[in-house]
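Can you please make up a whole protein chain along with its backbone structure tokens because I've never seen that pairing?
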Amino acid sequence: MTPSELNPLNRLSKRDLSILEHVARYRISTGEVLHRLFFDGSRANAVTKVTSRLCEIHYLRRYPLHHPRTYFTLGPDGARRFGLPLSRTRPLGPQSLPIEYGVLSCATRGRRLHPRLTTRELLEICPGLPVSLRDQACCLDETTRPPRLELIRVDLGGRPDHVARKCHSDIRSRSDIDSVQSLLAQGRFQLIVVTGTTAKAASIGEALDKHDWPARFEIHMVVVPDLLPLIAGISDS
């Protein structure tokens, strides 16, 4: 039990725990996402009250996203609760922030949540996946039976052909893994490309068409306009 939990004023409610589990899974979250997922029928200030309390007792930390918005990571007690390193409590860097925000938005904005997989969950689906390939975010599309694995590639502002080459490398680097080959053969492995505008999505789509892809493999574009202020100034050509 952490020092915070010893104080009866700091005991966590069921909703508190759900919020912390969500942030642990997605690595970051925002007030808007938390409102949609955990505060149905409540006003936005209800989210502010809960997150402020969780920050005060060190279960969450708040950092600037882009003015005036903020994002949350786990705080020190939150990280300890889930056995995660304290590095997960620090502010994200200029490339990791748009990547994690793009993954969060892609997974939570649709009519149905696409849960982001933990490393353990990913290895249950893709045993034999090398350590070097375990950190790129994957989600699960549970709208199909059986579910499909979604590999997420976030556009950081590079040219469309550059993004397409990265996508092709994503698949090529996994194509010799037996578990991935099995998913591909079943049509249960797909790539999601997250970008900031419909025009950029169309350009990336044209660049992707110039590459060869496995049979039954699908690529989907997701447009997240909020990504644009996060990638301004990033050099990713």
Observations:
- Residues 14-26 form the longest helix (13 residues).
- Strands lie at 60-64, 70-74, 138-141, 148-154, 189-195, 218-223.
- DSSP finds eleven helices and six strands in the chain.
